Amino acid sequence: MVGNGSFDVNASSVGVDLDDDGTPDSELVSNYQKDFDTRFESPLSIAAGAAYRFKLSAVLVSAVWFDRVDEFAVMNPANFRGQTIGETFEPSVRAQFKSVFNWGVGLEHTFSKKLGFYGSYRLDRSAFDPDAGLPIRIHSGEFG
Question: pLDDT of 104-126, one tens digit each?
Fold first, then answer.
């Protein structure tokens, strides 16, 4: 457990043929729940950094690796019924992350006591996995 959370969903459709029967449908699904346990899984991570200094310059490097995290439940809200369609929804907020490797390099040079230069580049890829859907997904009946 890492804290508590709330769940809020509002989905509506007016005049759209959702079930392909030729008749426009109007539906409302709304639910709010609060104060239940949440959970988050952090990946195994390894980081390193180094600097090499010359007389007036320096080169700095860093790297960090994050392991993948398999799909897990962040929170499990209670089931609820849609207001207009009566269907029962079983919400589950889930997350999963892919492995990433990020790095950076920096250069600095001192021209005088009052003037210096510093430049850097970093690669900061996200653990978001587009093949898995959103980082946090809501699975619920026919929407989500």
Answer: 999 999 999 999 999 999 999 99
